Automatic annotation (TrEMBL):
Its cofactor is NAD(+). Signal peptide: none annotated. SUPFAM superfamilies: NAD(P)-binding Rossmann-fold domains. It comes from the Bacteria. It holds the Pfam family GDP_Man_Dehyd. Its EC number is 4.2.1.46. One of its GO terms (biological process) is nucleotide-sugar metabolic process. It comes from Rhodocytophaga rosea. This is dTDP-glucose 4,6-dehydratase. It is an enzyme of class 4 (lyase).
């Protein structure tokens, strides 16, 4: 029986990873460690909470003593580490939270894994889930991020993720800790907190509120359906080579303004509103400080070496996502009440 610690499993991507592992591997014990910050929500996992191979643990990865004891008690065989502060705009207003959780928290997990596994000959893995933002911004339209692209992070968020990636590699290099890192592009899909572009716009269209597009909307992102990312993590966890990095992406680049227009067309259709109704809500607002122009991932390595590929066409994935948000009204209303209102006012008014 494999004991796997998944951190950040109550968040957006983590909840899909937990679901994939709990449902696919009944012989693994899955432990989900999450602090339940504003972004963590156990409602994301209501369908797996009763499964016999699933355990939830509430706790903070920044608390070194707690993490050390947790590893001693449970003797995990592997770690899939997703817990993080994940929103770039919040990293601009509160960078220290990102440095504590993303850098110190990752270091605490690395130390605990190193202590636990140092005298063991077992089959272990420390898997760090990271982002394409560590590579910085692309300026030449022909360029893509590959696994050897030098790091050039530009925001406190991406710098904190780059710092954690460097620590993971340093522990492999120095202590031979068995590690793997994946760097993925922008995810979208069910359970994403409505501070991120797509769920924020879905919620605002539903409520006839303006759609804040930063700058001229010309920044480009590559988009991947979250379940395809969770499948990629499963693939790398089971088939990836220790010490390697794999880039994950959808070969699916969009300018922000184009993606928002596409979303508006889908929403008009779903809400039976005349075409053009949602697009009238688009409002260009002050640009994000230090806004990276373009991210684009070359995911050939994971595709060629491990046989993973995205399963969904983008429009199909976006329609599925919209359907999920329109069906899960209660989820959306719960997460957008209370503290969200304060965040929204500070960020957009
Ligand atoms: P999220 O913000 O939705 O979820 C993060 C989770 O981590 C939450 O459940 C939160 O409660 C938990 N958490 C935060 N601080 C913690 C702490 N100190 N201790 C324990 N738990 C804590 O994030 P997400 O979008 O699901 O991203 C998950 C991971 O994937 C992150 O590491 C992120 O950098 C990476 N990533 C995200 C994307 C994306 O598009 N969202 C793309 C590539 C990589
Ligand atoms: O209101 C908005 N208006 C807007 O124009 C918001 C929230 C965003 N944007 C722009 C900024 C980006 O160019 O849309 C693009 C996407 O923004 P986000 O959804 O905030 O994502 P991004 O900053 O690209 O980062 C995401 O992808 C990489 C995740 O939040 C990260 O965790 C991940 O590592």
């Amino acid at each position: 029986m494999k004991k796997i610690l998944i951190t950040g499993g109550a968040g957006f991507i983590g909840s899909h990873v937990v679901r994939v592992f709990v449902n696919r591997y009944s012989d693994y014990s899955i432990y989900n460690l999450d602090k339940l910050t504003y972004a963590g929500n156990l409602a994301n996992l209501s369908d797996v909470e009763e499964m016999p191979n699933y355990t939830f643990i509430k706790g903070d990865i920044v608390d070194a003593e707690f993490i050390h004891k947790l590893f001693q008690i449970h003797a995990f065989d592997a770690v899939i580490h997703l817990a993080a502060e994940s929103h770039v705009d919040r990293s601009i207003s509160d960078p220290m939270a990102f440095i504590y959780t993303n850098v110190v928290g990752t270091a605490n997990l690395l130390n605990a894994a190193r202590m636990l596994w140092k005298n063991s000959s077992g089959d272990h893995l420390f898997y760090h889930v990271s982002t394409d933002e560590v590579y910085g911004s692309l300026h030449n339209p022909e360029d893509f991020f590959i696994e050897t692209t030098p790091y050039d992070p530009q925001s406190p968020y991406s710098a904190s993720k780059a710092g954690s990636d460097h620590l993971v590699r340093a522990y492999h290099n120095t202590y031979k800790l068995p590690v793997v890192i994946t760097n993925c592009s922008n995810n979208y899909g069910p359970n994403q907190f409505p501070e991120k572009l797509l769920p924020l716009c879905i919620n605002n269209i539903k409520n006839n509120k303006s759609l804040p597009v930063y700058g001229k909307g010309e920044n480009v992102r590559d988009w991947l359906y979250v379940v395809d990312h969770a499948r990629a993590i499963d693939t790398v966890f089971h088939g990836g080579k220790v010490g390697e990095t794999y880039n994950i992406g959808g070969f699916n680049e969009w300018r922000n303004i184009d993606i928002v227009h596409l979303l508006c067309r889908i929403m008009d259709k779903k809400l039976n509103r005349p075409e053009g109704t949602s697009a009238r809500l688009i409002t260009f607002v002050t640009d994000r400080a230090g806004h990276d122009l373009r991210y684009a991932i070359d995911a050939s390595k994971i595709m060629n070496e491990l046989g993973w590929k995205p399963s969904l066409q983008f429009e199909e994935g976006l329609e599925k996502t919209v359907d999920w948000y329109l069906t899960n009204n209660e989820w959306l209303e719960n997460v957008t009440s209370g503290a969200y209102q304060h965040y929204y006012k500070e960020q957009y008014n």
